[in-house]
Amino acid sequence: MFFIAGGTGFIGKHLMNALGAKGCNARCLVRSEDKALICRSLGFEAAIGDITDRESLKGKLDGCDTVIHLVGIIEEKGSMTFEKVHVEGTRNLADEARKAGVRHIFYQSALGASAASWAKYYKTKAEAEEIVKASGIAYTIFRPSLVVGEGDGFTEKLKELVRVGPFIPVPGSGKAKLQPIYVEDWVKCFMTLFLNGLRNTDYGSRIYEFGGPEHLTYNEIVLQLMEALSISKPVIHIPIKFIKMSLPFYGISKGIGNFLGKKIPSVTAEQLSLLQLDNICDKESVEKSFGFVPMKYGEALKLFIKERR
After folding, report:
1. Which of 9, 40, 101, 149 lies 20 to 30 angstroms, CA to CA, from 304?
2. In the chain, what is the greatest distance between 2 CA atoms, to the nearest angstrom?
C-alpha cells in the first residue's frame, strides 16, 4: 500500500487519479475532512494529519510499504517556512516510516537542489534529500525542472501577470532557461518506475534529474502562453533591482489591484533571483531514464489551457 503525503496538491491530484485508475491501494495524509473526502472518492483511505506535526503521524503509516512524499512549498507564509516544511516535515515522515517498517520512500525534490545553494528553497530541498538518504530505507528521489499542467502555480501566476495590464512585465532579461515537463508525463515517469519497475523487481535507491524535451527561455515560455491564451501584448523587460525595491509596497499594489478588479500575482525576492538562473538538464533525460519522449511545452498548453482570450 502507498502512503501519500501531499496527495491533494498540484502533482498529487494527477498522481492519485492515475493510481486510482490502476486500482492501487493508498492511504492519503490530509489536513482536513474536506480533503479526506477527495481521497475517499477515489477509493483511497484517508488519515488526518500534518507532516509538520510529529504526533499527528503516529500509527498513520502502519501497513504501508511505500511512502510518496510530495509535500513542498515555493513560498514561505507565516509559520510554514522552508525549514519547517521541507526539513522538519521530512524528518518527521522519515522517522515514522522507519517505525512502521516502510520499505521505500519516494521524495519529490527539485532540479537545482543543493546544500551549497544560496536559495533557501533549494537548500532545504537538498537537506530533505539527505534526511531521506540517511533514513536507512531505500529511496527514489525525483529532481524535475518546472512541472506544468492544470492547476500548477507557476502557470497560474503567469496567466495573472499576462492579463493584469497593457503590457507583460518580464523580470530581468528573461533569457534564463527552464525545461518544462507536462505533469501527466511526470506521472508517467512515476508509474513506469513504481508499477512496472521497482515494485516488481528490487528496491534500489536512485536520484533522477529530468525535464521536458526543450530548453526554453522565460521569454519563450511567456510568448507561448500568450499564444495559447490568444493574447497579444508588448513585453517589457524590467531590471530586477527595480522590482526588488518595490517589494515592500506589494501589499499596497495588491490592494489597488483588488480595487481595480485586477489580481496582482505575489512574488518574493528569492523567486525573482531564481528566475535569472538556468534550471535545465539533459533534453533526453526522460527518454534515457523512463523510455519515452515527453510532450513539448506548446503541445501541453493546448491540453490544459482551455480558456481563450
Report:
1. 40
2. 58
Q: Which residues of the chain carry a pLDDT beneath 50?
A: 200-201, 249-261, 307-309
Residue 128, H or E segment: helix 120-133
d(CA 86, CA 11): 16
- Between CA 88 and CA 250 the distance in angstroms is 30
**What is the rounded average pLDDT for all residues in the chain?**
90
Q: CA 194 to CA 150: how far, in whole Å?
A: 23
CATH level 3 topology of 2-144: Rossmann fold (3.40.50)
Q: What is the pLDDT of residues 46-83, one digit of tens each?
A: 999 999 999 999 999 999 999 999 999 999 999 999 99
Which triple of cell numbers denotes residue 229? 491564451
| 182, containing H or E segment | strand 181-182
Q: Which residues contact 180 (CB under 8 A, 6 or more apart)?
A: 145, 146, 147, 148, 211, 212, 214, 216, 221, 297, 300
The cell numbers describing 285, all together, are 533525460
H or E stretch covering 143? strand 138-144
Sorted by where each begins, the domain ranges of the chain are 2-144
Helices and strands in the chain: count of H runs, count of E runs: 13, 13
Identify the residue whose cell numbers are 507565516: 78
Neighbouring residues of 12: CB distance < 8 A, sequence distance ≥ 6: 4, 6, 70
The C-alpha atoms of residue 210 and residue 208 are separated, in whole angstroms, by: 6
